[in-house]
Design goal:
Helix content: over 70%
Shape: globular
Number of domains: 1
Distance between the termini: 40 Å
Structural class: mainly alpha
Length: 170
Amino acid sequence: MKLHGDITINGKLYPAGSDISAWKIYPFFLFHMGIFGSSGFFLAYADTEVPTLFLYAHGGFALLIYLMFYNILFGRDEVRWMFINAALGGFGIYAELRWILALQDLNIADFPPTVHVIPFMYYIMYTFLLRQMALDLSGSRENPQRRRIAERVYIVVSILVYVVIFWVGR
């Protein structure tokens, strides 16, 4: 993958424009964001009510940091795609959160909409990371023809997963 900004990994500077192995980026961010996203999820839907301001401070700060890294790693156009993913994924987010909460005998409607903001944002940023990984691992990032195919496959697979989860969770 080609960097869009400078980044230092383990004390080594990789300047903007450098090619870097996807394996230096994705394992760390998938794990790290998975941990922070899980903590934000469990805080938002805990048995005891966590103040919304704390949820926004805890999750919002981390999300802003991730967004800065995303701009460095992927560039503005790809971050724009993250928000396209958000529009596409609104249905998916709702279906998956409803399903995950139902596994814990909870109902998404029992929580105020403000509680869902941080888990929704983590979901958006995590699915963005999955799309970036799909582009890099399929070798389609720099190949417009392969990229169109990869993006269409990504959208179709996403919709299928969301529909299955939505219907299973009913």
